[in-house]
Amino acid sequence: MSAATREQFAAEARAERPDLAQLCLLLAAEADPALDERAMDWAQIELDRLAGMLPYGLRGARAWASAVTELLGGRMGFHGTPADYDRLSSSLLHEVLRRRRGLPILLSVVWLEVARRAGAPVYGLGLPGHFVIGFGDPEEGVVADPFAGGASLGAGPAELAAGPRTPARTLDIVLRILNNIRAWASSRPEQSGVALWALDLALLLPSHPAKLRYERARLLVERGAFREGAGELEAYALVMDAVDADAAVRIRAEAVSARALLN
Fold first, then answer.
1. Please, what's the b/e burial string for 70-92 (b: 16 or more CB within 10 A of its CB; e: otherwise)?
2. N or C end of the chain: which has fewer CB within 10 A?
3. pLDDT computed for residue 72 by the predictor
4. Handedness of CA 35, 41, 42, 43 (dihedral sign)
């Protein structure tokens, strides 16, 4: 990803109404150098095309849920499989549009963007360990699972169907996608560079867990960037001084150890 593209990502994340599809495509450009402006335009056009295939004049949450499910889960074949969890491409919007396979949250992004473009009252719903979409008033409980091709959760497992239905905010969705990418990379030491750019982008979001700075510093040290990692550990220790003095001491000790590796 070029510096200019990262600037675009940061600017979009700070917009009054961040564009979810655009943020996902800018994120994907970090993983796929071939994803240029023309390819991003194709992805946006494809979302528009799919939205144009939905019936006109739909009313009510259940009607929208049925129509979107019939189109995307049925005719277009968007769904997920266990094997998709092993692919980085399952977290990249343009690849999910091309393959019609992906992780629950990326499939949900496709459904959200298509449904929104058609005027549907739709929202994302981040459940523990899963991501789905809802239609209409969250209290109505009209929820579909894009990973399962749009299967309704209204009468599904309690752990999915029950509980509060707070619509996920755009930036929360993006952060969750980045967290998934980091989790994918964490079990693959040879992919530490992927974990690093996922952290870099997460830190560009206007709101993110402070601990990500610490994780990035540790990752730099693991990758052999001892001086840079030590510097970031020391900077994070300054932040922790006001929160947890003991933790700040431990982090400074880590920085000293990192600098010692330079000798």
1. ebbbeebebbbeeebeeebbbbb
2. C
3. 96
4. positive
